[in-house]
Design goal:
Oligomer: single chain
Strand order of the largest sheet: 3-4-5
Radius of gyration: 32 Å
Strand content: under 5%
Shape: extended
Order of helices and strands: HEHHEHHHEEEHHHHHHHHHHH
Distance between the termini: 59 Å
Length: about 475
Amino acid sequence: MATDLSFGAVPPYYREVYNILCPSQESKVDRDMFVKLLMKASLPKQTLSEIWDAVDNKQGYLTRNGLYKALALTALAQQGKSINEKLLETFSDQELPKPSLGDLSDLKSFSIQLRREKNPSVLGYTYGELCELDNIKLELAPEKKGLLLKHNEYEVTSQRYKSTVMRRYNDFIALQEILLQRYPYRLIPRLPPKKMLGVDREFIEARRKALRRFLTLVSRHPAVYDCNILKFFFTFQGSDMQHKIKEMFRGVPDEFMTSQLAAQAKELVPMDTQLQFGNSKEQIRCMSVSFMKIKDMTERMARRSAEQASDMLLMCKELTALSNESNPTSAWACGSSDTWPHLKRGFKAIAVEFAGISDKCAQQSAREEDTVVEMLHLFLDLLTAYRDLCERHEKGVLKDHQSALQKMGNMKKKRMTATIKGQEQAGTVEQLESRIIEQESEIMNMENRNYFSLHCLQMETQLIHANLEVIAEIGRASCRERV
């Protein structure tokens, strides 16, 4: 009979492992997760079996204390000691031993995957976990490429793939097209518009940031981040990327055709999904309207900081000019007053202070642009992608399903009419029945697609809410810049 751990002080490492296995603090460690953890200890199977017997409560999961006890026994086993619970009594006044389990990052990924598999109707990702999926850097190449028609290139770095590649705007267009074909029921962000004429530095910088946000969102999407399409985009080092990626993934089926959840999509969709979807859609629309206004306000604040930096620099310039004024001052002009020489010395000192203020205002403006404004843009890009997804659902799979049902109804009417008119001998009824069977099969497939699309909509709605934590980050960053 397994007993709880009652001896020794718990080291921080134990809590770190527990937080990975139970991020929601539900105090139940899944058996599969625990087995995966034990395998990292590199102990003989017999020893692992003995550890499990010592902590197994016969309920299919471990408690927090049970996990801590298992970690302590694992550490003792790695020291060559036998599995004996009484050995733990020697740690009554000291910290329990720490086992060697190697890198825990893969365990964290497995924990997320297992939670998702056990409850596919819950996203299973926190905002922090989404951010850890990848970190994207995108910089403008210093020189344009091309012989006749010059174009900008971007240096794209993916932390996940530990790669750096050169990409042009058309490569992003090809990537987005393929992602939309493969994942039509997921949040795929828009790309910034293409502009052939009147391209200035401000436009190029705005597009660079927008492209970085696009890659950030798709590389942190739970259903997309580890797909072969993104891997190819982030790692292919050859030329003519836009055509190569299309050749590589031409004819790849969409997610519905390959998902293990497609067959059971109907069971995954709650009865009130349409009602919940309508409510969530309206809520997210309201969010989008308000956060768009907030974004505009933060952009104006950043511009004011930049304008203040410019004004302070002009003030410094004028004060410096006054301090260096060299025209002679005679008693005829000033009488007994010596104010002007003193002022000139003061202008020189004050000019230095204004230069410092200008520098601080410029830095504040840059920080506001790179943190507050950019994070708001990122979140708004996500909300826009959600609106686009809703339109694809309503104008695409839902419309096709309704059209197929109407077509089926028309065929059944024709069959009834043919039967009444006694045209069975001509084979009209048999032909109609064959077409009806084919249409019923098509409708069933469309119904499954509709349910799968609704399931994906629920997951994408949860993804929006998982990313809402960025708003707290925006608030904190904004307050830091204003205090």
